[in-house]
Amino acid sequence: MASSGKVLDFEEYVRNRQDALLRSARRLVPDPIEAQDLLQTALVRTYGRWDGIADKSLADAYLRRVMINTRTEWWRARKLDEVPTEQLPEARVEDGTEQHADRSLLMDILGVLAPKQRSVVVLRHWEQMSTEETAEALGMSTGTVKSTLHRALARLRQELESRDLDDRALGRRGAEDRGQDRCAA
């Protein structure tokens, strides 16, 4: 009977928290399907230890930690398959609102961060957790959270600035090319 109580308790928890948990997973991995896989894997791993979570109010933090660890395992295990090609694929242009473009840029730029840095940024700024809550969720000291966040934000600023400079240089080159075309005509 205790086993069926565990199942019902866990099922109720998942039913009540699934949207918030999926949002957390979505913030850790950019692909929506991969986020669902991440959450599913974390739920399977958590189910086996559900009785060990004495304070069920900390279940969200426990699950976030499992998702972070799982994502890190996947990241370490990934194979980098580069396929040489003579012709680069066409650049895709996202058609949508400016917000969609900003979100896409942000998700792209988050990719330059190390997994630990990305986890700290996501928990502090997306999940709006305090420094102490972030430290507890990630199993690190508050000082480590602060310094990691500082370095991560500095890296993000640097990446944004370099992309902005690259865009300006491309725009300048395009204008110079148009000027040369006019002179040739």
Description:
18% of the residues are buried. The chain is globular, with a radius of gyration of 22 Å. The mean pLDDT is 81. It has 185 residues and is mainly alpha-helical. It is built from seven helices and no strands. The longest helix is centred in the last third of the chain and has 43 residues, at 142-184. It has two domains: 7-76, RNA polymerase sigma factor, region 2, helix turn helix motif (Rna Polymerase Sigma Factor, Chain: A, Orthogonal Bundle), CATH 1.10.1740; 113-180, Orthogonal Bundle (Arc Repressor Mutant, subunit A), CATH 1.10.10.10. It has helices spanning 2-28, 32-47, 59-77, 98-110, 115-126, 131-138, 142-184.
Quick description:
With 185 residues, the protein is mainly α.
Keywords:
single chain; Arc Repressor Mutant, subunit A; 185 residues; Rna Polymerase Sigma Factor, Chain: A; 75% helix; 2 domains; mainly alpha
Topology:
Blueprint: H1 2-28, H2 32-47, H3 59-77, H4 98-110, H5 115-126, H6 131-138, H7 142-184
Helix pairs in contact: 1-2, 1-3, 2-3, 5-6, 5-7, 6-7
